[in-house]
Design a protein that fits this description.
This protein has helices spanning about 5-15, 45-50, 75-90, 105-115, 130-140, 160-165, 180-185, 185-195, 195-205, 215-220, 265-280, 285-290, 320-330, 350-365, 375-380, 390-400, and strands spanning about 20, 30, 55-60, 70, 95-100, 120, 145-150, 170-175, 210, 225-230, 235-245, 245-250, 255-260, 300-305, 310-315, 335-340, 370-375, 385-390, 410. With about 425 residues, it is of the alpha/beta class. The longest helix has 15 residues, at about 75-90.
Amino acid sequence: MNIQIKELYEHFLKYPAITTDSRKIKRNAIFFALKGESFDGNKFALQAIANGCSLAVVDDPKLKKEEHCLFVEDVLTALQELAKHHRSQLKIPVIGITGSNGKTTTKELIYTVLSQKYNCLATQGNLNNHIGVPLSILSITPKHEMAIIEMGANHIGEIKFLCGISRPDYGIITNIGKAHLEGFGDYEGVIKTKSELYEHLKQNGSPAFVNADNELLVKLSSGLEIVTYGFKQANCVFSDLKADPFVKIKHENKTISSQLIGKYNAENIMAACCIGKYFKVSPDDISAAVEKYIPQNQRSEIRNTKNNSIILDAYNANPSSMKQALENFKEMKKEKPLLILGDMFELGNHSLAEHKNIVDLLSELGFKEVLLAGEEFEKACDNKKFLLFKSTSKLATYLKTHPVSGKNILIKGSRGMKLETILPFL
């Protein structure tokens, strides 16, 4: 540890609050002047100090001699190194979680279950990247007894890097699907990157929680100490899965009635129950925790308006999650179904083929009323029965003049499509 990080950590122990936004200041917090493509936090360092920060970590040489400024070679690296050092001082169990789909919901469920017995910290929102993971680690205080750290990735090597910061004692990969193909190159790249969590656990002799029904994860976790969950042979066995529309599942002779829709959410529930059981949370407390959890942030939310019933799943989308959502919606056998789908982002050279696959699936499943928004769907769709819109704003204009009523609607697309903006017209 270099002298600057040591000095910074001593200051952090006195004032253990971090901010990267000069508009959101806690008194005596440490301001990290991060830079991006369109902003430079150094420009706001003095303002942050004036607003109450005790220290600003900067990398602009012009600020070297400014009072309450700590000059470093690179602010982001300093943040990451500070988090690494803080992690090395922690004695509590840290559970690392990654996966292509469901990792945020699984994280929230695990947090809800473990909080029945322990004082837990979990990654806030989707702060799961090279900035968010350090911030999550630095949020762990002496009062916490356990932490759940979510790790996302869009290129090879990223999970390995994040494991180097968070050093998880336990790990779980929810699943591995076709997400962020642009950064990973292909599906094999996704597998390699997600597996970096397992590699970290192997090197440290740490256990993994594994879905015993997922052949790929079972294969990849070979050589690891594993704790399994699933419908077949597993350490934590489940049965009697129903989703009409809310997931019900039986565990330990008790039916758990969740507020999550879609059979795909059963995997997330099973993971949380398995981890709760491993850490000796009582079956009753596990069941109660899962049953009280309500999804938010546009992840399979049910929104009932005066005109329609809506499943809002517009937080994210990739080929794997889109397929799951469509198949589940078909299984629900809703009357007067309407699909509103937006483009899936970050698929690179695979984008046209993957969007065509979804269009073909729509036809295979027999959906008749479909509104598709985005340039990628526009290129991929030659089905004249489906309505195409180049953008979400053009879709919104159409909905203003073509009111929709009495429909059961699934809305799904990548976050950048901002499909939630059409809700006022439904």
